[in-house]
Write a structure and sequence with these properties.
Blueprint (H helix, E strand, L loop, with lengths): L2 H9 L5 E3 L4 E2 L26 E7 L3 E8 L2 E9 L19 E4 L2 H19 L1 H7 L5 E6 L5 E5 L2 H10 L3 E2 L6 E2 L6 H17 L3 E6 L2 E5 L15
Parallel strand pairs: 7-11
Antiparallel strand pairs: 1-3, 2-3, 3-4, 4-5, 5-6, 7-8, 8-10, 9-10, 11-12
Length: 232
């Protein structure tokens, strides 16, 4: 079973997880730098040109690096990646969830993932996410060379809004949220505005970084009943 077929079938059995649309060669793969625990993966595997990986993404900002297990055609490796917006400095001193090998059969692999990896991964992730965002409810927006938005944040509520409801994707190489390249510039602008407005109404502080400097957008003020406090 090809890696893409395997991860799509696996995602069908893992609520909340979505597979990446295409497979990527693991040789010189920048996303490999975000693997939290490599489990039984030999480092030499990344020098192999003909091996591909896929990534499963959860709307809490979590990702799983999935690849064939070297020299074991009947198994895949599923390796937890650093939570979005975190780096290896944010997990120092914390116990990492262990990467595991699973059968190449998604029907058998899904329950093994539930038992041996997913619960521990979710339990371990909030601590580094909190370390990565010392500010209060901060969301930072930058723009790449093509003027497409890239969003960094360290809050599960923001990931849920962007990934589950806002059509954003999570870049395995950077841990940044971004919109699909298939959207036009106008579609991207509209979706960004909608998502940022929803985040503001959930009390997130938005900082947009541009060539003109950072610009902050604070949550809207609560509505006040004009009659309140004027009772006779």
């Amino acid at each position: 079973m090809h890696i893409t077929e395997f991860t799509h079938a696996l995602a069908d059995r893992l609520p909340g997880w979505q597979p990446s649309p295409t497979a990527v060669a693991i040789a010189d793969d920048p996303a490999s730098n975000r693997i939290w625990d490599s489990g039984p993966l030999p480092y030499a595997a990344f020098s192999t040109d003909n091996v591909q990986r896929s990534v499963l993404t959860h709307h809490w900002g979590l990702q799983l690096y999935v690849m064939p297990r070297p020299h074991r055609p009947d198994q895949y490796l599923v390796l937890p990646m650093l939570p979005a917006n975190t780096s290896h400095q944010h997990v120092q001193g914390l116990r990492a969830p262990r990467g595991i090998a699973v059968p190449a059969d998604p029907v058998r692999a899904a329950p093994r993932l539930h038992r041996r990896l997913l619960a521990g991964y979710r339990f371990a992730s909030p601590a580094p996410i909190r370390r990565s965002s010392p500010g209060h409810l901060q969301v930072h927006v930058t723009f790449d060379a093509q003027r497409r938005p890239r969003i960094r944040t360290g809050y599960i509520g923001a990931f849920l809004e962007l990934l589950a409801h806002g059509a954003f994707l999570l870049d395995p190489a950077t841990g940044e949220c971004h919109l699909p390249d298939t959207l036009t510039a106008e579609q991207t602008r509209r979706q960004l505005i909608r998502s940022l407005q929803r985040l503001r109404h959930r009390d997130f502080h938005i900082t947009v970084h541009s060539a003109d400097g950072p610009r902050s957008h604070h949550p809207p003020l609560p509505r006040i009943n004009p009659r309140k406090g004027h009772r006779r």
